[in-house]
Amino acid sequence: MNFPENLEAMTEVIVARRNAAQKAIIAIEEAQRQTQTNQRITNILVKLCVSWQESDPGKNGAVYFFLGRARSERVVVREFLPEGTKICQTQKEWDNYSRTKSRHGANDQVPYWYPVVNLDAVGKDECSKCKTPQLLVEHYEQTYDSSDGDEWLKEHFVLCLDCNSTTVLKSETSNSRF
Ligand SMILES: [Zn+2]
User: Fold this and answer.
1) For the chain, what is the HEC assignment?
2) In angstroms, rounded to a whole number, what is the distance separating the alpha carbons of residues 88 and 18?
3) Ligand 1 centroid to 140 CA: how many Å?
4) Domain segments of the chain as ranges
5) Which residues, given as ranges, of the chain have pLDDT below 70?
6) Contact yes or no for 105/65 (Cβ under 8 A)
7) CA 139 / ligand 1 centre spacing (Å)
């Protein structure tokens, strides 16, 4: 490209470069948004597989559980358990197992209070973007920890992998575990 030889041509080059820069900034911002969304969804998916292992769910960061069709109950999905994972069916089995592990250590057996269900037994509700039924998830965590008071968050949302998005259905806080 020849260097512009008059003010009009010079101005055109300036405008073109400025527009290109502006377009690149918009693309970067969009890529950043997508990166954040992908990281958020990845974190949810990872936690959906392992949150049952937490000895005090939500105390050390967010936990995520699928919800049953009744929506009030966290469930563990059989398809996402590592092969051979032992499931405690009764309190007695759990008590026996508990004695063998440290109190705050991770559970490597599924506690008896989580129903272990097949994926098709997970509750569903409509995704706000594509309007199709998608799986229900609970997000639970201690969001504030102080001597003046604590805050715990419980959120129910629809997780849609087609839209890469979550639709929050309800969100509540409490000053203690709930
Ligand atoms: Zn959707």
Assistant:
1) CCCCCCHHHHHHHHHHHHHHHHHHHHHHHHHHHHHHHHHHHHHHHHHHHHHHHCCCCCCCCCEEEEEECCCCCEEEEHHHCCCCCEECCCHHHHHHHHCCCCCCCCCCEECCCCCEECHHHECEEECCCCCCEEEEEEEEEEEECCCCCCEEEEEEEEEECCCCEEEEEEEEEECCCC
2) 64
3) 22
4) 50-174
5) none
6) no
7) 18
Inter-residue contact 157 to 171 (CB < 8 Å): no
Nearest-angstrom CA–CA distance, 157 and 171:
9
Distance CA 116, CA 122 (A): 10
Euclidean distance between CA atoms 114 and 92, whole angstroms: 15
Residues with CB under 5 A from ligand 1 (ion): 127, 129-130, 160, 162-163
Give the predicted TM-score (pTM) of the model.
0.90
Q: Using one digit for the tens of pLDDT, what is the confidence trace for 32-45?
A: 999 999 999 999 99
For the segment 81-107, what is each residue's pLDDT rounded down to a tens digit? 999 999 999 999 999 999 998 878 899
Which residue carries 């559970």 as its tokens? Answer: 107
